[in-house]
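#onboarding

Welcome to the new folks! Below is a worked example of what a typical request in this channel looks like: someone posts a single protein sequence, and someone else replies with the predicted structure as tokens. Don't worry about understanding the tokens yet, we'll cover that in week two.

Example request:
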Amino acid sequence: MRFLNWVFGLASLLLLAIAPPALAETKALLVGTNYSKATDEKLRLANPIADIRMIGAAMRRTTIDEVTLVEEPDADTWRSAMTDFADSLSGDDIAVLYVAAHGFQVDGINYFLSADGGALIALDPLIQQMTERAKGAVVIVDACRNNPIAAFGEDEEFSVVEIADATRAIQPISLFDLANAGRGLSQIGNLRGLSAVVFFSTEPGNVAEDGATPGKGSPFAKVFAREIKRRQSLDEAFRRTAVQVNQNTDGRQSPWRQGDLPFNVFIAGMRSLPIP
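Example response:
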């Protein structure tokens, strides 16, 4: 009897030893706001919510394992959504973040505006949080839209949302800073190595279009939603999206990318090869 127990115990240990590790997954967080909660009507946008719903529906038809949508997030919701997303990642996962909102650059740092118009979320700490938890980070930014902040007050400030694991402290931004921010977004200054790739809906210093028809999607989102369903690499999807958006907007908008990953990512699977 002791011998049988020993055999069963050894067999259990062997099964544990040879059990395959948890499979790597691709997880996506999509954040969008039309600023319907904002008191200032100048902040209103027509299509970000439609954009992330469109992109989310397209992603659910691909190999992405988890797709989470966050609509109209205030500062606290932004913080909790990013924390939950980061906590769900393993060291082998691919993390995908898609943001459709107002975006600003101040002193070379890119920010998103919370849904209530009262706080800013810096892009750099979001990327840092993802790269520290995942094998690779893919960030798609359709947030270089118009700057609606024209008036300012000397004593008014926007708080900057603190992101867990971020090592770079960012000071509050004044309304004056935002009102005088440059057009569009800027390049990411501290993006190093091969841990992340960021795909912007337009080039630095330019403004992305929101879309002519409310609820029908931005020019960028409509093309990108179609391309990510194709059996091609993410690099190909980025390139095809950039070309088509540039054509569709008569050259007014030219998507561009920054950074890279040391491996290919196939969102919808690899292209089928003909059998010789």
